[in-house]
Amino acid sequence: MNSDSGQYHRQGIKSVSVKVQIRWMIRRDMAEVLRIERESFEYHWTEEDFLCCLRQRNCIGMVAEVDGQVVGFMIYELHKTRLHILNFAVADDFRRQAIGGQMIEKLVSKLSQQRRKEITLEVRETNLPAQLFFQNSDFVAVGVLRDHYEDSAEDAYVMKYRLDPEDAMYNFAPHNRIAKYEKLADGLHEES
């Protein structure tokens, strides 16, 4: 992620960068957060879902604000060695303006070599825009959770950002077992 000259660059994608203030979520933000949540997700959290989560000691809510208007939010958990994003969204009218990138940069700034070294999250298999956003923000898919969601039979991709990308787990590459059998079959066909 690079920011310079008011532009945000992600692997060749250029968009206007809007400067946001990122701050703790407060109770009066809830109406705007719920509006963004409903416009962003088919299976959205309810106000009770947010409040239940935010009552947990290790759960943090933050909002991104432009000119006094909440335009994005993130809910994450603090764990001993990582941060775990539970919910993350930017209002439709403010997407592709580097707001999500600035929110990720805020989370990355909370990591340290001594304590929390990674950020994890799950993203629905059908949510391609989110997958691409997190991939362009240096997250890597490291696994699949089958039938992860209660509201649908959808799988989730586990994505991870690490301060130390040299970590072997981070450089996970899926093994294509089918290719081995295709080569074997090709070899048998050539012999006949």
Notable characteristics:
three-stranded antiparallel β-sheet; 5 helices; single chain; Aminopeptidase; 192 residues; seven-stranded mixed β-sheet; 32% strand; globular; disordered N terminus; alpha+beta
Mean pLDDT: 83
Determine the strand fraction and express it as a percent band.
Answer: 25-35%
Strand order of the largest sheet: 4-5-6-7-8-10-9
Query: How would a textbook summarize the main sheet?
Result: 7 strands, mixed
Helical segment count:
5
Ends apart, CA distance between termini: 54 Å
The H/E string reads EEEEHHEEEHEHEEH
How does CATH name the architecture?
3-Layer(aba) Sandwich
Count up the domains: 1
CATH class: Alpha Beta
Structural class assignment: alpha+beta
* Overall geometry: globular
Give me the count of strands.
Answer: 10
How much helix is in the residues? 25-40%
User: Gyration radius, to the nearest Å?
Assistant: 19 Å
Ranges where pLDDT stays below 50 over 5 or more residues in a row are 1-14
CATH topology-level name: Aminopeptidase
The name of the CATH superfamily reads Gcn5-related N-acetyltransferase (GNAT)
